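In response to a reviewer's request, we include the raw inputs and outputs for one of the modeled complexes. The two entities were modeled together in a single run.
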Amino acid sequence: MHRCIEMASSNLDQMLTILENPTRRRILQKLSRERHYPLQLSRELKVSQQAIMKHLKVLEEYRLVKCRTEKSDAGGPERKCYVTDHQFSLIIDFAPNMFNVEMRPLTKDKEVGREYDKFEKERRRLLSVRDSKKRLREISRFIQEINEEIDDLGAKRAHLMGLKDEALEEAHAAVEELGRDYNERRLLYYLLDEADRSLASISEKLDLREKVIREMLKRFGENRILIEGGE
Amino acid sequence: MHRCIEMASSNLDQMLTILENPTRRRILQKLSRERHYPLQLSRELKVSQQAIMKHLKVLEEYRLVKCRTEKSDAGGPERKCYVTDHQFSLIIDFAPNMFNVEMRPLTKDKEVGREYDKFEKERRRLLSVRDSKKRLREISRFIQEINEEIDDLGAKRAHLMGLKDEALEEAHAAVEELGRDYNERRLLYYLLDEADRSLASISEKLDLREKVIREMLKRFGENRILIEGGE
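The model returned the following structure tokens for the whole complex.
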């Protein structure tokens, strides 16, 4: 089961364009900690308020931040402040035989959660700690624990990616040995790495007509290349 | 142990700027499968050869691709072809209380490898399969297996990130309750999430002088905020 959720490439393009800008990343970093007023962002990031407003407008348009109005302390007019919104991971994997960009939601999953039941219980316990200083110390320890687990997963993932890159190197060499034409090789690279073998998906990804793909798959089947039997 | 390797932010900035360009990503995708000649890239991606050469130059400068010269089939002059080089993962995690960008190397790790010994053995077995068609089928199955494992790790990571975001939400609320000033809050957010508590690291990350940080830490210690005792 391929659980990754790939966003339409246009979404991915947009997200990378938005996040490429260092000032926008610094704004998001600030807002992820606490709400900020535009003036405050301008002062902290040493960027003109006009530029800040322009960035906030883009971030709001793509729903990465949202605007809230807050009453002023001194009973003055309402003030606009901004907080982050949305959640996702964007991952780019780059190795000599591999280049993948994917987005996936960053949400808790019931099925996965069972494995991390101890964390869930610990989190609930933390909420019941009355003293806010004590709660903060304990939450901090809890976050460090989660960070270690996340690092472990990252090291495992990096190892598997290294293995996959080696396997792809072998596979690409084997594809070359077969002496097929360019589009046939493209189809083989696709089939090697993708679980979704529906004609519609292949056609979209490779920008080739379904009829052309069906014929290539038939030839692969006849020659027992990747596919066993006549498709 | 915080195993992540964070590149200097200037490197990260550069990498995001390079990868933000959709044509460059398409070039890298192509080259990660097999070597290409500039003319071939231009034809396949329907982009002028001049633009392709410009992108390849940038990619070569940042060592994401390298150029090889190959003898022409027809005994003509040597031709330049390009392949991908380098390896890393670039990960952006975005959630309402969290915004992290990190790069880490994508390499096999001996310590981690022990856990995936079955994959390593399987990979060695695959190399000994003589028939190239059979080898390709088996490598493909092997890659699907690794993909499933990588997806599982991704789902686990996403779950933990969801948990972490919830914990950070609690922590940020607790920080607000303490009523400290802006830079003190910045330091608290840093301490909550970072294992590296050396003055030099904090000073660099928060762009504050070590003296200022030392004084804040002293106050936190005195008030038992995150730090127990007088530092």
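As requested, we also summarize the result in words. Strands of chain A lie at 65-70, 79-84, 88-95, 98-104. Chain A touches chain B through 108 residues (CB under 8 Å).
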